[in-house]
Write a structure and sequence with these properties.
The complex is a heterodimer. Chain A is an alpha/beta fold. Chain A is built from seven helices and five strands; from the N terminus they run αβαβααβαβαβα. In chain A, helix 3 runs antiparallel to helix 4. By secondary structure, chain B is α/β, with parallel strands linked by helices. Chain B has a single domain, classed as 3-Layer(aba) Sandwich (Mannitol-specific EII, Chain A). Chain B is globular and about 35 Å long. The model of chain B has no long low-confidence stretch (mean pLDDT about 95). The chains are: A alpha/beta, B alpha/beta. At the A-B interface, helix 3 and helix 4 of A face helix 4 of B.
Chain lengths: ~160, ~150
C-alpha cells in the first residue's frame, strides 16, 4: 500500500538536529517504500539580503556568513549522504539559495515530490506572523503532503541504528 | 523558533543606565556574563567581539533600534539580551538608539544566527511594536510583548 503512496520523498535540511532526525526518518521511509529520496538545504540568501538592507549586516559580514552557510550546507548534505549510504538508499542532494520555503515549494513542483519530510515545527508561543519560521511556512505552503518528525525520546535515532 | 527560545526574562535590562555605545554593550554583555557565570576575561572577550563588529559599521537602525551581535566560538546555545533605555544613546547610527538587542550566537551554527537576526529585523519593522517596546516599564512588560 505504502509503495503507491510515496514515489518521491524530499527531506528539508536546515542544519538543526531536528532536520537530521527528519533525514534519518526519511531514509528509513524511502527504504521501506522503495521511493526515491531527495535532500535539500537552502542557503537563506533572502535573509542575508534583508539583513544588509536593514543595516544589521555590512557587506563584508554578508560574504562571511554566506561562506559559512555554504560550508554548513555541504557538511549536512555530506552527512545525509553518508546516512543514506549506510542503509543502501540512493539519494539526490542539492544546495539551493534563496528564500527557503519558496525554494522548497519550487523543488517539490519541479521534481514531482509527493511527500515533504520536516524536522521540528515549533510550538506556537507567539501569534506574531513576523516570527513564523521557515519550517512553519513550508508546512503551510507545501503543495504535497507533509510529514513532521518528532523525536523527543530519541527513538528514531535508536531505530535508525537498529534497522 | 530560535529567537523566542533565546529570550529570557533574566536577560532584559530596563531601564538601561549606559550613556554611550561602549557602555551600552558593556551593560548588556555584563548582564549576560553575570547570569551565565562567565569569568571577567570571557566577558571582556565577548565585549571585544561585539565592538569589533560595530567598528565595521554600526548596527543602529533608523527606527531607534540597534542589534549588536557576535558569533562566539564554543557557545552552546544562542542568547538575546534586550535593553531599553529611557534616554536615546548614540550608537553610531544616523539616529540615537533606545532599544538594543544583543545577539550572541554559536559560531558553528550560522543558520540559527541568521534566523534570530532576521526575526528581530522583521518584528521591529512594526512601528506599533517598537512603540509598545519603548513604553515598556518592566522586564515583564518587555517579555510579554513577544509572547502575547
Amino acid at each position: 500500500m505504502i509503495n503507491t503512496l510515496y514515489r518521491n520523498i524530499l527531506v528539508y535540511l536546515d542544519g538543526s538536529e531536528g532536520s537530521m532526525t527528519a533525514a534519518m526518518y526519511a531514509i528509513l521511509l524511502a527504504s521501506a517504500s522503495k521511493a526515491s529520496l531527495h535532500a535539500v538545504y537552502v542557503v537563506n540568501t533572502k535573509a542575508l539580503g534583508d539583513l544588509v538592507r536593514s543595516r544589521i549586516f555590512v557587506d563584508q559580514e554578508k560574504a562571511e556568513f554566506l561562506s559559512d552557510l555554504k560550508k554548513d550546507a555541504g557538511r549536512h548534505i555530506r552527512h545525509t549522504e553518508r546516512l543514506a549510504a549506510s542503509k543502501d538508499v540512493a539519494i539526490t542532494t542539492a544546495s539551493l539559495e534563496g528564500s527557503p520555503h519558496k525554494e522548497i515549494v519550487s523543488y517539490i513542483k519541479e521534481n514531482d515530490i509527493d511527500l515533504l519530510v520536516l524536522g521540528s515545527v515549533n510550538a506556537i508561543r507567539s501569534r506574531r506572523d513576523e516570527l513564523t519560521s521557515e519550517n512553519d511556512r513550508m508546512l503551510r505552503t507545501s503543495p504535497c503532503p507533509v510529514l513532521v518528525v518528532r523525536d523527543s525520546d530519541d527513538s528514531i535515532w535508536q531505530q535508525f541504528e537498529e534497522v | 523558533m530560535a529567537f523566542l527560545e533565546a529570550i529570557d526574562k533574566n536577560l532584559i535590562s530596563i531601564p538601561m543606565t549606559a550613556r554611550n555605545g561602549k557602555e551600552a554593550v558593556d551593560e548588556l554583555v555584563s548582564l549576560y556574563a553575570s547570569y551565565c557565570g562567565l569569568s571577567e576575561k570571557e566577558k571582556d572577550d565577548i565585549i571585544s567581539l561585539v565592538m569589533d563588529r560595530e567598528h565595521l559599521g554600526s548596527t543602529a537602525m533608523e527606527n531607534g533600534i540597534a542589534i549588536p551581535h557576535a558569533k562566539i566560538e564554543g557557545l552552546k546555545k544562542p542568547a538575546v539580551v534586550i535593553g531599553v533605555s529611557r534616554l536615546p544613546i548614540d550608537f553610531g547610527g544616523e539616529k540615537p538608539s533606545s532599544i538594543f538587542f544583543l545577539v550572541l550566537a554559536p559560531a558553528d551554527n550560522p543558520a540559527e544566527h541568521i534566523q534570530i537576526l532576521s526575526s528581530i529585523a522583521k518584528i521591529v519593522s512594526s512601528q506599533l511594536f517598537v512603540r509598545m517596546l519603548s513604553s515598556s516599564k518592566t522586564k515583564e512588560d518587555v517579555y510579554q510583548l513577544f509572547f502575547d
